[in-house]
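Lab notebook, bench 4. Still working through the backlog of constructs that have no structural model yet. Next entry is a single chain of 193 residues. Request: give me the structure tokens for it.
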Amino acid sequence: LEQWNVLGRLYVIDAKTHSATPYQSAKSILGMEDIQTQAMEDAFADVERCVGTIRDNREIKDPEQMRLLAGWLALHHVRCKRNAHLVQTDYSAEVGRVTDHLLTLHAFTLTRHPNTEGVREPSLITCDNPCLRLTQDGVEFWMIPLSPTRYISFMSQRGWFHIEPWNFNANVLANATDHCVSFDASLHVDPPR
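Model written out:
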């Protein structure tokens, strides 16, 4: 979140009332102290370096990149408001279990191009439970936003999966416990008219 807040334009949006306030800190959203170990912080920095160079849609095939992305997504799945009870246990075991599962799937990074063909597509949002787990037509999806224009998707089936940004955001809003975070104080959950 701090990376998204560089321009001071992040907003916390109440998931129930949809009222927006300027972003303060991840703690204000998660309601807990930072529980990442130094090893997790280092892995997060590695993931940011990895995805920071990705500009287009692609499948992640490099085993080291795949492990970094899977571990990062697993950490965010475990370290969220919904799973706060796991923090009281050995949450690293759960991170390991989820990471191992994700490594059995296919990983993709997807980049939205918000101003292509004259259409202003909405920014992606995130929330206090940022990992989406969906099943559609028997295909398992795990998704997490990386930025207002990029997300990672792990899928049980190889091939590109296209989700419209407002549909992605609607799923994020439905997954939120209390708060969403937006780049421009809007949830962007309604399709264009």
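Notes after review: The two ends are 30 Å apart (CA to CA). Residues 77 and 142 are 10 Å apart (CA to CA). Flag for follow-up if needed.
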